[in-house]
Specification:
Elements (H helix, E strand, L loop, with lengths): L1 H16 L10 E3 L11 E4 H6 L9 H11 L6 E6 L3 E6 L1 H9 L24 E5 L11 H19 L3 E8 L4 H13 L2 H6 L1 H18 L1 H15 L3 H25 L5 E4 L4 H13 L3 E3 L5 E4 L9 E5 L7 H16 L3 E7 L3 H13 L8 E6 L2 E2 L2 E2 L2 E2 L3 H18 L9 H18 L7 E2 L2 H4 L7 H17 L16 H10 L2 H11 L3 H20 L6 H4 L3 H28 L6
Parallel strand pairs: 5-6, 5-11, 6-7, 11-12, 13-16
Antiparallel strand pairs: 1-2, 2-4, 3-4, 8-9, 9-10, 14-15
The protein binds arginine (ARG).
Arginine binds next to β11.
């Protein structure tokens, strides 16, 4: 779609400046649309050409711009060329714009629609391991885990649709002293029946109770230490209780992940790496990286690598390993097992230092692939509450989103009869959660706001889903209309052109998200697209049934053309929404 025009303009530049056309591709971009002003479609950045050495970097940039603009000649594809402020604008032939944008339609599989842009050729492909969600057994599933789940899913989907082999991994907090407490506490407060009935709830209750008890009861503390030691020594009984806790937790989570459209290829966890963690300590020792601190703990000095918090503890004085030691072991193990080209960890920003230290130690151990490990940090969510109060379980957030959406639907006059309103409310509610989360930079904190996120009109997931459903219903009504009936000359109104101009940016937007792993580019692109489609619904005559309009000649052709044309944003919306999440209505 956009490639055709970008190529043509690059070729023109290449001929004029006697350079390879490829050199111009990075300096060309589609012009973002504002309101309904009629304008150029592509712009060329002169400063980018100066930086890349194609144009001399000295001299007046404006003169350079104007001079180059006058040397470029119009042709049948590029109709207008003009100099702006440090940029050159290109306007392409309108009919061709309509035609070319519609070309891939019907030829590509729907879920790959628009994903074969040449822009993506420069992206490295290979195996990407994305680790996300990673809750802790028996502890609270907080807003940070929800963010990690949906952001990680987005990154995994994005990488996958760009042709990578993606491994989706959940790294459970399934080891450590909390299991000592849980094991000891279960003997006193636990109940197998309740565990079967509502496992997450019950484990959490036991965990809270035993923690309270251990605050003032030395025996309880001792029992917890004993239980954890038994676990570490593979005592059968202790291990089988631990296993039971882990299995039922994973089963429960899988149900909830399914509602979110999220899945994992691997459920790993800290427990898998306790032995390897000891091996890592030995390796550190043999490389002379391990020092003993005054307190008797094992530490790695990171001051040479420029880390501010220069020492990192990897071994307790009692010889047990820590969170970071298990992470070191886990990373090495994953590299051996999956031979990934890159690994991405998604957690809140409070763990940024942890991951910096992790990558530094791996590098110091000689694992140069640690350069290709990345931490994607995100900010805090304030005030995520449901009617029950503070959120403890992910399920409660999803239930609340569904209930509120169902309520809004019942209040709205435009809601149509549907077979399964709960299912629709669930899908739309989850979109609303995701879009609220993805609109800004991931690093920013934000306030969780049910009312705002569920508005049908604002920039919300609800608006996205409604637009999609409306387009889908239009498509259904026109099922069977053939692309041959399509006449581009009937689509030259500014409303259609603006949509096409906006669509010219889609591959750049995806490219941007692929570069910085931020969903905001994609989300804001989609929201803008939905606004433009809303104008198209108002201004283009697509209302009514095909029979109404299909009386004679031009009107019916126009109707068909517009319907087919709207198939493009609809299909693209579909593809892109699939990257954000996995389910939509319509
Ligand atoms: N379970 C951890 C927590 O809830 C997150 C794990 C992140 N991943 C990792 N490899 N350390 O804070």
């Amino acid at each position: 779609m956009a490639c055709f025009f970008r190529r043509r303009i690059a070729a023109k530049l290449g001929r004029t400046l006697q350079q390879s056309e490829d050199a111009f591709i990075p300096a060309l971009s589609a012009v973002p649309v504002f309101k309904k002003q009629q304008g150029a479609d592509f712009k060329l950045s002169i400063s980018t050409l100066r930086i890349s050495g194609i144009l001399p970097s000295t001299g007046d940039i404006q003169l350079q711009t104007e001079h180059l603009a006058t040397r470029l000649k119009q042709d049948s594809v590029v109709e207008d060329i003009s100099a702006g402020c440090g940029i050159i604008n290109f306007k392409v032939n309108r009919k061709l714009l309509v035609q070319k944008m519609l070309e891939p339609f019907g030829k590509e599989e729907d879920d790959k629609f628009g994903l074969n842009s040449e822009l993506f050729n420069t992206l490295k492909k290979g195996t990407t391991l994305v680790e996300y969600s990673s809750p802790n057994i028996a502890k609270k599933f907080h807003a940070g885990h929800l963010r990690s789940t949906i952001i990680g899913n987005f990154i995994a989907n994005l990488k996958q649709c760009l042709g990578n082999n993606v491994i989706r991994m959940n790294y459970l907090g399934d080891w450590g002293m909390q299991f000592g407490l849980l094991g000891a506490g279960f003997a006193q407060f636990g109940c197998q029946e309740k565990l079967k009935e509502n496992p997450l709830q019950h484990l959490f209750e036991v965990y809270v109770q035993v923690n309270k008890e251990a605050e003032h009861n030395e025996d309880m503390k001792q029992a917890a230490r004993d239980f954890f030691r038994q676990l570490e020594q593979h005592d059968n009984e202790a291990v089988s209780l631990w296993q039971q806790f882990r299995e039922i937790t994973v089963d429960e989570y899988q149900q909830v992940y399914k509602r979110l459209g999220v899945h994992f290829d691997v459920y790993s966890g800290e427990s898998f790496h306790q032995h390897q963690a000891q091996e890592v300590v030995q390796q550190l020792q043999s490389r002379d990286l391990l020092k003993t601190s005054e307190k008797g703990t094992g530490v790695v000095d990171l001051s040479t690598s420029g880390d501010t918090s220069s020492v990192c503890t990897v071994l307790r004085s009692d010889g047990t390993t820590l969170y970071i030691t298990r992470d070191l072991a886990a990373a090495i193990d994953r590299k051996e097992k999956y031979n990934f080209n890159e690994m991405i960890y998604v957690t809140d920003k409070s763990q940024a230092n942890h991951f910096r230290q992790l990558f530094h130690i791996l590098l110091a151990m000689g694992h140069s692939w640690a350069d290709r490990c990345k931490h994607v940090p995100f900010g805090l969510v304030r005030g995520m509450k449901t009617r029950k109060g503070e959120v403890v379980f992910l399920e409660d957030v999803l239930d609340e989103a569904r209930a509120r959406m169902l309520h809004n639907m019942s209040q709205s006059k435009t809601t149509k009869e549907m077979d399964n309103p709960e299912d629709t409310a669930e899908k739309v509610g989850i979109s609303a959660l995701i879009v609220q989360d993805f609109r800004g930079p991931l690093q920013s904190d934000y306030k969780f706001d049910w009312d705002r996120m569920l508005q049908a009109q604002g920039d919300t997931g609800v608006f996205l889903q409604y637009t999609h459903a409306r387009l889908s219903s239009l498509m259904r009504r026109n099922d069977g209309v053939k692309a041959v009936a399509f006449d581009p000359s009937l689509l030259l109104e500014q409303t259609s052109i603006t949509i096409l101009q906006h669509l010219l940016r889609y591959d750049e937007v995806l490219y941007q998200s692929a570069q910085d792993l931020q969903p905001k580019h994609l989300v804001n692109f989609l929201l803008k697209l939905c606004h433009l489609i809303a104008s198209a619904h108002r201004e283009l005559p697509v209302k009514g049934s095909a029979q109404d309009v299909a009386q004679v000649g031009r009107e019916s052709l126009k109707y068909i053309s517009i319907s087919l044309f709207l198939n493009v944003p609809s299909t693209l919306l579909n593809t892109l929404m699939n990257i954000l999440k996995n389910k939509h209505i319509g």
